[in-house]
Specification:
alpha+beta, five-stranded mixed sheet
Amino acid sequence: MFEPRSHKPEEAPAPKRRRWSLGLSAKLLALTVAVVATAEIAVLVPTIANYRIAWLSDRLAAARTAALVLDAAPQDGVTADLTRELLDSVGAKVIVVKREGTRRLLAASDMPPEANVHIDMRETTLWSAVHDALDTLVSENGRILRIVGEPPRGADFIEIVLSETPLRIALLRFAATVLLISLAVAVAAGVLVYVSLNWLFVRPMRRLTERMSAFQNDPEDASRIIVPSGRSDEIGTAEEALAEMQRELSHTLHQKSHLAALGLAVSKINHDLRNLLSSAQLLSDRLASVPDPTVQRFAPKLLAALDRAIHYCEQTLSYGRAKEPLPERRDVQLAHLFEEVRETLGLSSGSGASVGWVVDVERGLTADADPDQLFRVILNITRNALQALEARAPLDPERDQIRIRARRKGPVVEIELSDTGPGIPAARRDHLFEAFVSSARRGGTGLGLPIADELVRAHGGHIRLLDTKTGTTFSITIPDQPESRHHRRERIRA
């Protein structure tokens, strides 16, 4: 024999651990510093290139001055010491001027070196200047430069030969100084921007996140609803939208809790109440056998009322189910149905009535509907009308009336239920068909109209409130089923 296999309950998957990550503030600070540093570097490189051009231009300017001195001096009047001093003032090894197609060596050291790099300052562009500056920074000391520039007056050009080492040393010092200043500016700007953005955006976003998390932990606690800060920007709009959403959600959860509590309470009394009604039904059956004419007149109505009460008791919890039972439709005599509603409301007919009951129904008019469900719809609406009229006692049947009008328009039956009461306040019109909301009577549940709306929609029809100057008027439409329409057309032809 095979032993039954034991089934262990499946364990819920362990929650995933959140990976460590930088917070929004840290990311914002890093991004700000990176952006500012990138901007400073973008400015630093052209600055170094301009410094190199200025350094070389100063040497060429000094060389032009020296050339003027050498040109003005007699051929043998320039001593070796003066030549050396002029070269030292320029920082060059050789000074050459070209005039009228002839190159003239104005001054030179004892052993003029051979140039490694040739630079024409007259044709320097921004990109070539940046490239040459970076080349100077990464090259080794000892290279010799041949520099060609604008000449003195009357010459073609002037050129000097000099060592690149002083230029490289000066350029490195300048780059280091500018880099330190740029970093200081970048950090200061980054911190300033970070503080500003943190105060303007990060803190409000953190507040929104904290309030959402707090509301998530206990959405029914109204104290956890965010209070908008009153800002006029997008964050203020988000706060107001979040507050409105949280209020609606909290209100909805309260309604759901109320509905759950109501369902629990009704389920507890449903069984006992049904037994009591069953006992009353047995007594009514015995009462029906009494030969008294008055008893015989009212006993069938009492039995029908008890049967309907037991049926309602069995379906008390039907409201709010995921799927309502479909209506059991058949032809319902509306005049007879309206008379049952009047008797259930306890309204007397004739001159002794306290509330007028006016019915305008086509003779023999029937509706393709579930009689019990349609009875509940009419009863719920007319009971509300009666309660509204009774609230302004003393009653006058000429003034205080409940009016019912029913007509058939093709395959649709239209029913209008109206009263001459004070009407429905505008504040409650938008929530008439919401459970626990539309009740205006103290002690009312607010379920009458939602149940009526649900039952009418189950028939494929709709119920709506009409705009009237006085009182309240509801319009109900009940369409026939397709097969009922066919049988009705056949009867009309016959």
